[in-house]
Amino acid sequence: MKQKAFVSIFVGLIMVFSAFAGMMLLWGDNGSQPGKVVSTSPETFGVRGRLIEWNFNSLSDMLEMAPESAVAAYWLNNTASQNLTDVARAVLPQSFGLNYGDKLYPNNIERLGAIYFNNTWSEFHWIEPFPVNYEGLVIPYEGFMMIPSSSDYSSVMGKPALFGPEDGLKSVLDVISGGLPTNKFSLPYEEQADLQVDILGASVEDSAVPLPSGFKELYLAVSPNNGAEGYSFNAKYLNPDSSVAQKAKSIADQHNLSLSSSDGIVDVSGTVRAGNLKDVLTTFLKP
Q1: Closest by Cα among 226, 261, 222, 234 to 245
Q2: Helix (H, G, I), strand (E, B), or coil: what is residue 197?
Q3: Which distant-in-sequence residues (6+ apart) come within 8 Å of 13 by Cβ?
Q4: Chain-centre distance of CA 96, in angstroms?
Q5: Fewest CB atoms within 10 A around its CB: which of 120, 191, 242, 252?
Q6: What is the pLDDT of residues 169-222, one digit of tens each?
């Protein structure tokens, strides 16, 4: 397992296809095709009860919806670069939104993310609203309607929409309804990038996916370079141990990145060639 970079083992093929069968029922009868339904109002979903309305422009926005027990999270601008999306799909935990987003909804997922906590998870999908056609059981919770897509997963509509196991969705909805969000993440706030990842290294035993450790916190940020080749890259370790600090130095030396250290933060930054981005992220995220 440790030979695979930050790859989830909790989604089996049977679960994947059973989830899709349910999700397709949400929109398959309205004659829509992916990317063709255009609306901006969450009321367009046509779902009874409350709808999620929350800023979703960065990882820090998403962490405001994260339970106190969150140990890792990522956020992706899915429209920034197809290559960046492809790399994210390869190095991040297996994700319904990243791997099968075009089958979940009639509209494209523009931004997405996931939070991991208490050995469960919840995905966040920013989509333009579309009319939801659903029948059968709907699970009310805090005024929201959780729409089961299988025996394992449910959805909550809004901007962003939520997708994942029921227990995980309830924990996020508790925060959205006024509960305390996590305050354990420090590095991503006030930061902007098209791909952002943050991991609390001391808490990885509480994660549903294998995570790296040997530090208090790891923050990764990647964006395409405007008008230039490659990607703007930044990695920050908070209080890394000696082996992690040496790994950061090795990566910086190998890829001609700058390395600095101040106030317990080891910072690696610079431009990474497109062909090297997957390898660089894999090395940082390897458990």
Answers
A1: 261
A2: strand
A3: none
A4: 10
A5: 242
A6: 999 999 999 999 999 999 999 899 999 999 999 776 666 677 899 999 999 999
> Could you tell me the two tokens for 7?
């790859």
Q: Quote the CA–CA distance of 112 and 108 in Å, as a whole number.
A: 11
Which tokens go with 60? 């820090």
**41 neighbors 133 (Cβ within 8 angstroms):** no
DSSP single-letter state for residue 33: -
Q: Is the pTM of this model over 0.70?
A: yes
Q: Which residue has the tokens 């679960």?
A: 15
φ/ψ of 145, rounded to 5, equals: -115, 115
- Indicate the pairing of strand 120-126 with strand 161-164: antiparallel
Domain positions in the chain: 15-176, 195-285
Cβ of 183: how many Cβ atoms within 10 Å?
9
Separation between Cα atoms, residue 130 and residue 138, nearest integer Å: 18
CATH topology of domain 195-285: Alpha-Beta Plaits (3.30.70)
Residues whose CB falls within 8 Å of the CB of residue 122, separated by 6 or more in sequence, listed in order: 114, 115, 162, 163, 164, 165, 168, 169, 171, 172
Rg over alpha carbons for the chain, rounded to the nearest Å, is: 19
**Tokens 């909790």 correspond to what residue?**
10
